[in-house]
Write a structure and sequence with these properties.
The protein is of the alpha/beta class. It has seven helices and five strands.
Length: 179
């Protein structure tokens, strides 16, 4: 197996460049060894390939590496949409739960090697944006006990890489302080 095989057959998701970056980073950190991938938030609109379609790509990684994907969403319709797009796989588990509660209640030593935080839209008025950043920080804090030194965390909706404007506004500085 070659990482280029996975990258060159990337499905069109609207975010192929960033997803290929993630594939390369996963390969660099873990080769094709089995890992646990946890994503918060999933496909809301099965017709919009830029809207929460990470599960499609994480499943492809899982199939090639004998890894597992845990897709958590608090909206059962989103999970249904995700299942209709991703198709059945013994490597993908769908969890109907609040992401913070799910992460908080993960047993130790269940380790998350790749955490993709894509829940709670950073949209609308300033209050909703503030709630999205706080939610993201709470997800990171809830997952901390299950992360390893080489775990990869991908945070969706970052609009400025200097100020971390977006959902990671609180979570990224928090993670940086913790190294």
């Amino acid at each position: 197996m070659n990482i280029l095989d996975l990258i060159n057959t990337n499905p069109i998701t609207g975010r192929a460049t960033s997803q290929n970056f993630v594939y390369r980073e996963l390969f660099r950190r873990f080769d094709f060894n089995s890992i646990n991938i946890v994503e918060t938030g999933c496909i809301r609109n099965p017709k919009d390939s830029c809207d929460g379609w990470g599960t499609v790509l994480w499943k492809r990684w899982a199939d090639k590496s004998n890894s597992f994907v845990y897709s958590v969403d608090n909206n059962s319709q989103h999970l249904f949409n995700c299942m209709s797009v991703v198709k059945h796989s013994p490597r993908v588990f769908y969890i109907h739960n609040d992401s913070i509660e799910f992460l908080k209640n993960l047993p130790f030593p269940f380790f998350i090697q790749f955490l993709f935080l894509d829940s709670y839209d950073y949209a609308g008025d300033e209050n909703n944006k503030k709630l999205a950043t706080e939610h993201q920080l709470k997800e990171v804090q809830a997952a901390e006990k299950n992360l390893q030194e080489n775990s990869l965390i991908l945070i969706d909706d970052i609009f400025n890489t200097t100020s971390f404007q977006g959902k990671g506004e609180l979570a990224i500085p928090y993670l940086l302080k913790k190294n």
